[in-house]
Write a structure and sequence with these properties.
With 104 residues, the protein is mainly alpha-helical. The chain has a single domain (3-103), classed as Winged helix-like DNA-binding domain superfamily/Winged helix DNA-binding domain (Arc Repressor Mutant, subunit A). It is built from 5 helices and 3 strands. Helix 1 packs antiparallel against helix 2. The radius of gyration is 15 Å and the shape is globular.
Length: 104
């Protein structure tokens, strides 16, 4: 792969990231109601760290464990997060749509 092709891929990926960011923020604004502020905060965090636990959401958003669980559940409902450990406890959630941009 040459430099020009790598540069084109980088620009294409960045464009896809910006599009996903815009679509995801629109969903958060439309669907999260009173949790809008913490939803946007979590989304910004997911762009830097696309794998999170409930405890991490709790710390990042400065909310209770119960509120963090409800926020993650709302993100799952909107397909912004996917649980992939299969565990009942210590679950890890992935911002799958974002991660998939780098795997193709």
């Amino acid at each position: 792969m040459g430099i020009a092709q790598t540069a084109r891929q980088a620009v294409d990926t960045l464009s896809k990231i910006m599009d996903l960011k815009q679509r995801s923020e629109h969903i958060i604004q439309q669907e999260l109601g009173k949790r809008l502020k913490v939803g946007l905060l979590l989304h910004t965090h997911l762009l830097k760290n696309p794998l999170v636990s409930i405890k991490e959401v709790q710390a990042v958003c400065n909310i209770s464990a119960r509120s963090a669980g409800e926020l993650v559940k709302a993100f799952e409902k909107e397909s912004l997060l996917v649980e992939f450990t299969g565990n009942f406890r210590n679950r890890i959630f992935a911002y799958d749509q974002y991660l998939n941009l780098f795997g193709k």
